[in-house]
Write a structure and sequence with these properties.
about 120 residues, alpha+beta, 5-stranded antiparallel sheet, 2 helices
Amino acid sequence: MDMIKDDILSKIMRKFTFDENGFLDSKMYIVEKHETIHKENIECYLQYSKCIYTIIEDGRYQNGNSDIKYKVFESTLEWGNEQGLKPIGVAFVNTRLITYLDNKERAFLEIYVPVEEE
């Protein structure tokens, strides 16, 4: 990765682990798209064939102090449960857009929640 030329924000992924009682852990990773990785350099490869996918606006920018992760994951997991989907206990979040409107920062997040195969 070229730290001067590459867009670092688009390469940062946050990983959350959770169970039925709530969040267990959170880690940040620098990731590369599959097409840009040379096979001999692969240390870890993420692949989940079935996920719940959503894009949301980060709540702390909506009202200034709210941590959105609890509200978003609760509603996403509730929707998944209604659809008969069972999460495997991990979720991935990417920042997709940060913009400014009326002198306020707005951030939009892309969320993947892998679910069990049928």
